[in-house]
Design a protein that fits this description.
- The protein is an alpha+beta fold and 332 residues long.
- The protein is built from seven helices and 14 strands.
- The strands form three sheets. The chain has a five-stranded antiparallel sheet with strand order 1-2-3-4-5. Strands 6, 8, 9, 11 and 12 form a five-stranded antiparallel sheet that branches. A four-stranded mixed sheet has the order 7-14-13-10, with no helix packed on it.
- A hairpin with a 5-residue loop joins strand 3 and strand 4.
Length: 332
């Protein structure tokens, strides 16, 4: 049975924790306050909208609306859940996405759109994939993912996954690099100081060793994009990441919550596809879901539908939660 009371309380706690953490750390992007409780929908309201849609809603979505007729920010990527009277089929209320995918992705194209404002993302429920409980398969389509990711067997699982992802990203951000003088001291085998002009790792780990962050560990992401672009044309976005220093450590000396890798990620030439990209203003932007001819693997492409001045910034979740530089693109 879906425990919406507990999950909605958990979501609000994440909001409070996120706001407090960003207030203390002075980050640029501060989330909205936790949304106020929303009045539940009635059975009559739900039945009326089911008649409009021509189909009975799946049980976990119905139970959600009986607890809360819509919702504000759920996590980092979904910023609103539609009230029941704003539910609609993707072909009717998400026409831009529908037109882009209907020939190649029937399950997504036939789906019910549940989310509202979001970070180039859509919560979809597929009425063509129903389990024995009457639940519809649920997932998130994101232009930066790329494409469709069927995450859960029902809407409750989709909502819970979004909250869990937000909690995990916040936990990573709250685990800062160890300051100098603490953590694992550097030694003769340390490699990858981000302040060094050298990116060569030298003689890497021997058998029986893994690489872990050393004291003063940091991660730097540098975003690159053209200064100007044209409406309706793909623009390539590149990003490189440097992380270090790293120490080789024997397996039996590893600490429980330590990042550990077989090879140290000292210099990554292209990581744009691994970043969550934030564009402002967000309304007139589309990211690629399929490879764009001439664009290197690992890069990203973005297209603007209106002229104007846009800013882009990337969020890297691994090996540390860090923000990239901000780049500005003038679209003509």
């Amino acid at each position: 049975m879906s425990d919406w009371k507990q999950l909605l309380a958990r979501c609000q706690q994440w909001h409070r924790d996120q706001a407090e953490w960003q207030r203390r750390s002075g980050e640029q992007f501060v989330p909205d306050p936790p949304p106020a409780p929303v009045v539940p929908a009635t059975d009559a309201q739900i039945a009326r909208e089911e008649a409009r849609l021509g189909m009975r809603l799946p049980p976990s979505l119905r139970s959600f609306y009986l607890h809360s007729n819509g919702h504000g920010v759920v996590g980092n990527f979904i910023w609103a859940v539609r009230p029941v009277e704003q539910l609609g089929w993707l072909r009717d209320v998400g026409r831009d996405l529908y037109d882009a995918i209907f020939e190649d992705d029937l399950p997504s194209a036939r789906s019910l759109l549940v989310s509202g404002d979001a970070d180039a993302s859509y919560w979809l429920l597929d009425p063509g994939d129903v389990d024995g409980r009457g639940e519809w398969r649920a997932g998130r389509w994101s232009s930066w993912n790329p494409g469709m990711n069927w995450i859960a067997a029902d809407f409750f699982g989709l909502f819970e996954n979004e909250v869990a992802t937000a909690e995990l990203l916040l936990a990573r951000e709250k685990s800062p690099p160890p300051p100098r003088g603490t953590g694992r001291p550097r030694n003769a085998q340390s490699v990858g100081d981000v302040n060094s002009p050298s990116v060569h790792a030298g003689n890497l780990a021997r058998n029986g060793y893994l690489w872990v962050p050393a004291e003063g560990f940091a991660s730097i992401v540098t975003l690159r994009a053209p200064a100007t672009a044209r409406v309706g044309e793909w623009v390539t976005v590149n990003a490189m990441r440097r992380s270090g220093p790293w120490n080789p450590v024997k397996h039996d000396e590893l600490r429980p919550d330590e990042i550990k890798l077989f090879e140290p990620l000292i210099f990554e030439q292209e990581v744009a596809a691994n970043l969550a990209l934030r564009v402002e203003p967000v309304d007139d932007v589309m990211f690629n879901t399929d490879p764009v001819p001439g664009v290197a693997p690992g890069a990203r492409s973005v297209m603007f539908s209106e002229p104007g001045l846009y800013t882009l910034q990337g969020h890297s979740a691994f090996p540390l939660g860090v923000l990239s530089n901000v780049v500005t693109i003038r679209v003509e």
